[in-house]
Write a structure and sequence with these properties.
Pfam families: DUF3626. The protein has about 280 residues and is of the alpha+beta class. Helices cover about 35% and strands about 15% of the residues. The longest helix has 14 residues, at about 260-270.
């Protein structure tokens, strides 16, 4: 694809060099497919738009909500890319994912969602990476094709599993299905509207092993994110096992604080899978 001036400037600012990345590595973009968005769901918007858009366009995120002029995300991008994006339209901003460091079926950075788009190999040519996450003002950067050193840093780091990823920034538009190798979903969405919508994307749909958390196990982790998300998770689960589909249904009800729901997801993601 043809990149714009800002995209080329950002890639040039990060530069080349570094240790080669193994050719089977992929960039993965995590999201919650059934969260509410503009009268529908996130996945419905992707299917209709045929694009995966940045927080600067959508104003939604499974991380911090700071993608606006002068906000933290704006400042981080200005620093990381030498001001290349300071004056561009939101449509020209990079999108964020993670490089597949550990080759886990649940994806490269489940912290940010139960589903992920596994991007096509060619997208690596316009992707940059850093470690740790850009929220921590990293100093280690590399193009995705030469991120072997960043992968080594991540493998040696002593961090929580939810923070154990190499951040990736994709420059230029992400088109669906052209730039997508596969969409990978949680099995709790089998037989639901999520699966029906996924079939419209035009890319292969795969399934990972799933996130499931028994209420008794959830109750044991009050120290992880505090008592409030544990209590909400138990209320959402009721007599069932907590999974992404139940959490998505709770989010669409609109009765709960999204920031607390995000922490419920952190609990489910961290303690609800045997694929870590």
């Amino acid at each position: 694809m043809t990149l714009g001036d800002a995209h080329r400037a950002a890639l040039a600012h990060v530069g080349g060099g570094g240790r080669p990345t193994e050719p089977d590595r992929r960039v993965m973009l995590h999201f919650h497919p059934d969260l509410p968005f503009r009268g529908g769901t996130v996945l419905e918007a992707i299917a209709a738009d045929r694009r995966y858009r940045s927080q600067f366009e959508t104003a939604i995120s499974n991380g911090g909500l700071t993608a606006h002029a002068g906000g933290d995300r704006w400042r981080w991008e200005s620093r990381m890319f030498g001001g290349a994006y300071d004056a561009v339209a939101p449509t020209d901003r990079p999108t964020y994912g993670a490089l597949d460091v550990h080759r886990r079926p649940i994806g490269a950075a489940p912290r940010f969602g139960s589903a992920h788009l596994r991007l096509a190999p060619a997208v690596l040519d316009r992707t940059t990476c850093c470690f740790p996450d850009s929220v921590f003002d990293p100093t280690a950067f590399a193009p995705a094709r030469a991120a072997g050193g960043l992968i080594a840093l991540a493998l040696a780091a002593d961090v929580d599993l939810l923070d154990d990823y190499v951040e990736a920034q994709v420059h230029g538009p992400l088109r669906v299905p052209d730039d997508v190798e596969a969409l990978v979903l949680d099995p709790s969405h089998r037989g639901t509207a999520v699966e029906e919508t996924a079939a419209r994307l035009g890319c292969p749909v795969h399934w990972h092993g799933g996130f499931r958390l028994e209420p008794a196990e959830l109750a044991r982790h009050v120290d992880y994110r505090g008592p409030e998300p544990v209590a909400l998770g138990l209320a959402i689960a009721g007599d069932e096992v907590l999974d992404p589909a139940l959490l998505g249904a709770a989010a669409r009800e609109g009765r709960h604080d999204p920031q607390v729901l995000k922490k419920v997801w952190h609990l489910l993601a961290r303690f609800g899978s045997d694929e870590w």
